[in-house]
Amino acid sequence: MQLGCHISVAKGFSKACRRAKELGADAFQIFTKNPRALRPKKINVPDAEKGVQFLRENGITLVTHTPYITNLSTPKSDLHEVTVRSIKEDLHIADTYGAVGAVVHCGKHVGEGVEAGTRRMIETLNEILSDYDGDCKLLLENTAGQGSELGLTIEDLVTIREATDYPEKIGFCFDTCHGFAAGAWMEDTFDQLVQVMEETGYIQSLVAIHFNDSKVPYNSRKDRHEKIGKGEIGASALAKFLRCEMFEGLPIVLETPVEQEEEYAEEIRYLRQLKQEESTV
Ligand SMILES: [Zn+2]
Ligand SMILES: [Zn+2]
Fold first, then answer.
1. What 3-state DSSP class applies to 55?
2. 233-259, pLDDT tens digit by residue?
3. What was the pLDDT predicted at 33?
4. Cα 15 from chain centroid (whole Å)
5. Distance from the CA of 165 to the center of ligand 1, in angstroms?
6. Which of 208, 196, 218, 217 is nearest to 254 (CA)?
7. Which numbered ligand comes closest to the C-alpha of 224?
8. Phi and psi (nearest 5°) for 63?
9. In the prediction, which pLDDT does 41 show?
10. Nearest by Cα to 182 from 208, 157, 207
11. Which residues are annotated as a binding site for Zn(2+)?
């Protein structure tokens, strides 16, 4: 299990890699480009090579996140075009950086209905992946179910992946906060969640976990991250993920609210402690 956090890439990729090590992270996540804009990005090749080498030498795993404002299910042709172009670029950047996966949010049907939105999402994924042959997988993240978001349940995500022409290029990222907010799990139903992950084959394609507590209650369908142990999910429920054999070996990445990145060093230490406590129970 590789514990880490989201890190700013504002000062360049190789700096972010070094930052991960300073914070004590074995895994980290960066945005491939500005999360609220879709401007094309040029890769600084020497910087990328430097970063990749550093990560290899230090055994650190990278996950990337694509910008928020794409919509895989949009009925609007202009946003659709931008979404396809942008995510293709994100995959290329992520692959160049040696990331294990590039996280993408599931589509929003924006009033067109779940069925139409899902169909559109599958078509868009096919378009994005048709000529992609990198090692980095496109990771579908479960959503909190805010507004018209699709992809709340493990079953839906597995169905979407399998309905595409390229399931082998698609993996999953499970966000603990989103799952809780969507009513997919809580402390008492953790075992059922793991069982569903196993039965549906989700677990074989699970590449990363976003590790967050939630500011809002179970099934509230709102995406509000909180620091581990400070929210509605609670430390004992979240610790189950850290202690579960099924998730051993996966990058576990904090996306909890911080004012300064340094705070993550302490939170990562806290996770290591939380994981260890099982031996004393
Ligand atoms: Zn997330
Ligand atoms: Zn979120």
1. helix
2. 999 999 999 999 999 999 999 999 999
3. 86
4. 21
5. 25
6. 208
7. 2
8. -125, 145
9. 80
10. 157
11. 65, 105, 141, 175, 178, 210, 223, 225, 255
User: CB within 5 A of ion ligand 2: which residues?
Assistant: 223
Both tokens of 4, joined, read: 């880490």
CA of 140, nearest ligand number: 1
Helix 154-163, helix 190-200: angle, nearest 10: 20
In the chain, what percentage of residues exceed pLDDT 70?
99
Residue the block writes with tokens 């659709």: 80
Mind listing the pLDDT tens digit for each residue in 26-39? 999 999 988 777 77
How many CA atoms lie within 13 Å of 205's alpha carbon, on the beta-carbon side? 25
Query: All domains of the chain, ordered by start, with CATH?
Result: 2-280 (3.20.20.150)
pLDDT of residue 281: 44
Of 87, 161, 91, 156, the C-alpha closest to 122 is 161
Helix residue ranges per DSSP H, 59-76 = none
What is the CA angle 67-68-73, rounded to 5? 110
Q: 133: which 2 tokens?
A: 């042959």
Helix ranges, the chain (H): 13-22, 45-58, 77-96, 114-129, 154-163, 176-181, 190-200, 235-243, 263-276
Question: Quick one: which ligand is closest to 142's CA?
Answer: 1
